Amino acid sequence: MNIAPYIDHTLLKADATLQQIDTLCKEAYKHGFASVCVNPYFVAHAKNWLKNSEVKVCTVIGFPLGASETRVKIFETACAIDSGADEIDIVINISAVKNGDWFIIYEELNSIAEICHANEVTLKVIIEATLLTDDEIARASAVCTEAGAHYVKTSTGFAGGATLEHVALIKQHISSDVKIKASGGIKTYDFAKQLIEAGASRIGTSAGIQIIEEANQ
Predict the structure, then answer these.
(1) What is the model's pTM?
(2) Which of 18, 45, 83, 183 could form a disulfide with 204 if both were Cys (CB 3.0 to 4.6 A apart)?
(3) CB 202 within 8 A of CB 37
(4) C-beta of residue 179 within 8 angstroms of C-beta of residue 150
(5) What is the pLDDT of residue 217?
């Protein structure tokens, strides 16, 4: 399997440097990864580095807790798009999920989706599946679909990682035009391949080079 086009080459560490972002972009360009995923501070820099390539620039919103006010997430999204982001990975309001505040969740995600759709930007919603029950995963996945998300994403990687079971469960509760991004704890080619076979269309990982090397073997 040519796994490179599935990979969002990710560096979201708090102490990331410009030199590390340059390396990330260089690796993504060399291997033909789907995107680089960086914190908002680095979006403009990554966009400039990759301006003559097909590699997308992805960034995170409301990361990693999802607890920012809706107006803050909206403003953060608009700023990221203005800086050149091609893809937005936004963390769902996890507390609202736990409280069963589904209308609030829908309104927030739909507001973000409208901005993304208007700017032809891909929207991925991180539901942080490891913190949710199966019923909450199912409902959250359905609400993401209804609100206009392009992807449902399993995890931030800060509270646990992707599982085959979560990917399969999400797949059952999204429409055919919504995709899945598996993220968190994906360190090997075999696991990445299993997640893709389970239904994931993107793999978010900081181990993209290791995965490619294993695939080539």
Answers:
(1) 0.97
(2) 183
(3) no
(4) yes
(5) 86
Quick one: what percent of the chain has pLDDT higher than 90?
A: 98
Q: What would the pLDDT profile of 5-41 be if each residue is shown by its tens digit? A: 999 999 999 999 999 999 999 999 999 999 999 999 9
CB 152 within 8 A of CB 171: no
**Measured CA distances, 64 to 49, 75, 107, 173, 213 (Å):** 25, 17, 20, 24, 29
Catalytic positions are 89, 153, 181
Q: Which two tokens stand for residue 174?
A: 């999204």
State how far Cα 143 lies from the chain centre.
17
Give the pLDDT confidence of 50-105 residue by residue, as tens digits.
Answer: 999 999 999 999 999 999 999 999 999 999 999 999 999 999 999 999 999 999 99
